[in-house]
Structure formats: C-alpha cells, structure tokens
Amino acid sequence: MHHQDYEKYLTYRTDDFLLDLDFQQWAQGQENPFWDKFSEDHPQKRDDIEEARQLIRRLNPQEKPLPSAYTKAQLAGVYATIEKRKQPQKRRSLFQTNYFRYAASVVILLAAAVAFYFYQSNSHQVFQTAYQETQTLQLEDGTKVTLNASSRLRVAPDLQNQPVREVWLEGEAFFNVSKSSNPDGFRQFIVHTSMLDVEVLGTVFNVKSRSDNTQVLLEEGSVKVAQPITQEQLLMIPGEVVEIHSNDQKIRKRVIEETKPLAWRENTFDFNNASLEIVARQIQDYYGKEVRFSNPAIADYQFTARVSRDDLDLLLSLITGAFSVRITEQDDTLTISEQELN
User: Is the pLDDT at 301 greater than 90, yes or no?
Assistant: First the structure.
C-alpha cells in the first residue's frame, strides 16, 4: 500500500485513527508494516494509536467488517461531520477549540458504540447477573456455565453449528465445556476476556475477569491461554492458575496452593491467610460495596475464615474480631479503620 499523504498521519488524533479504514484493518489483526513502523518512528503518537486500537477491538470484538449499512450510512454522517469541522471557521479561543473537538469525538464514539450494541444485540445471546446473584445455564452446544455475581456472558449466535464456538465474559464464570464434535473433529471453544483468550476442546475451568486482573483456573482437561496484543501463549494442565494484570500484560502461571478458588460455587467465601485487600475485592465484586482503608497498612492484614456469602454482617464481625479495627458504613461504602484506644 502506498501512503502518499504520509504527513497527514502526523496530525491525527484518536478520533481520526478510528475513522481510517486502513488503520481499522490493522487494529483488527491484519498485517501492515506501515503502521508498525509508523508507531515505532513516532512515539509521540503512540498514546493516540493505542487508544484508538483498543477502542476498535472493544467495539468490534469479533474482528469482522462493520455491517455495510452502518459503514455506508452512519459513518458517512460521521465523515460529513468531520469534514464540516475541518472547514475554515471564525477564530475561537483555545478552550472553545478543544471543547468542540472533544465534543465531536464523544459523539463519534457514542454513535459507534450504539451501532455496535444494536448490531451485536440482534445476533448474540446475553446472560447477566446482578450483585448477590448467581446463574447456572446450559448453552445450545451442551456446555454448562455458572455465572458468579455481577457478571455478563455474551454468546455467539448459532453456537452449535459454528466451526469455532465463542463467548465473551465480563466477571467470573465456571465452564464445563461440551466436547461437541463434527465430521472434521472436535471444535474449539474460546472464552474472550479483556486481557486473555482461553481456548479449549472439552474441559472444566474457571475464568475471572475483573477490572485490572484476569485469572484462569483449570480443574480438568487442558486449555491454551493467549494474550491477543502481545501474542503470548501458554498451555495449562489441571491444578494450575494463570493470571494477567493490566499494568504489565504478562502471563503468570502457578500451582494451586493456599485457597479454594471455587468456593463461590458453594455460595461461600473461603479465605486462608488472605490479605484484607483481597477480602475487600470479594466484598465489592459480590455485594457492590466499596471498601476503603483509613490506613494502607490495614489492607495487608492476613485473614482466615470460611463464611456463607449470605451473611455479610458475620463476615464483617469476624474481621473486627480478628483485628483491632472498626468498620463503618455510609451509603454503599465500608471504611475499615484502626480501633481508637481509650
């Protein structure tokens, strides 16, 4: 591909990259040495490039071309808006210029998000749980899934007849994947999360994808985890846990040692020398309550207990009984602070 107007890309911002068809294709996985070299040669553009790339991947996780109706009609309107914005105008203050630029960017992203939402909603089945709710379901291919609280699973259409079975997870779920077969052999089952793709044939495993962390626990069978951005891949065997954090995107593997990570399936919290920071995350994920520490050192306190998830009051009383702390609640925020000495 010839980029005769190479210089124009030096002026591009996030919203400009979003609307460039060549960039869209590269962001969705097509090889294009131009964009690799452009990003390497111009580090000042990397933030805009990466932001646009991530938005495209999130808006179109299937990595398929946009629906033609959307591409020709709705994007045409977006292009028209941008062209109008580029026409000579009366001089504005710096505040006004930035305001209108970012306002236009927001409109563009909202239009894209809404279009993809309706496109995907019409073709995908979605299951979602609220706080303090779990749900067990069976997909059309026979795969059994248990969704933990505050989780969302999106399932590709006609799952039983697809050459690759795909689902998208936000939150936590336990999978017992059916070894669905066809004349060509077993078909892959892929769980997509924000940071990892989990590929299996038939197995039992747990996936947890919350905010800045994704974790995969393999109970039986075998799976391959893959990081879409770095292309790093790793094979797992039963009894192993793989984790990845958003701050470095590195895949880490360990053997299960100190906890029973699947206690949630029995509606139980099972903490074994877990830091109060980990306990706080569990409370937030299940009850939707934010937990704050008046002193950061409190977050490192080690806590051991096995408690029903139906009894938050008991859990909190065990924490206050184990340490010299008090817990106060305002709205949906719990604050853990050191006990005042009399």
Answer: yes
Q: Of 103, 121, 139, which marks where a domain is finished?
A: 121
Q: Grade residue 101 by pLDDT with cuts at 50, 70 and 90.
A: low
Residue 93: strand, helix, or coil = coil
Q: Give the separation between CA 136 and CA 153, rounded to whole angstroms.
A: 12
CATH number of the domain that residue 155 is part of: 2.60.120.1440
**Concatenated DSSP letters of 28-86:** TT---HHHHHHHHH-GGGHHHHHHHHHHHHHH-TT--PPPHHIIIIIHHHHHHHHHHHH
Place of tokens 């909603």: 121
Tell me, yes or no, whether 260 lies in a domain.
Answer: no
- Shared-domain flag, residues 155 and 227: yes
d(CA 269, CA 257): 16
Same domain, 97 and 14: yes
Higher pLDDT, 231 or 295: 295
pTM recorded for the entire structure: 0.60
- The string of pLDDT tens digits covering residues 327-339 is 999 888 999 998 8
Mean pLDDT of 162-170: 89
Task: Count the domains in the chain.
Answer: 3
| No. of helices (H) and no. of strands (E), the chain | 9, 20
Q: Domain of residue 141: give its range.
A: 125-255
Q: 144 in a domain, yes or no? A: yes
Last-in-domain residue among 255, 289, 324: 255
Q: For the chain, how big is the Rg over CA atoms in Å?
A: 24
Same domain, 213 and 156: yes
What is residue 163's DSSP assignment? S
Kindly report, residue by residue over 212-235, the tens digit of the pLDDT: 889 899 888 888 898 887 788 888
Nearest residue to 143 (alpha-carbon basis) of 170, 166, 171: 166
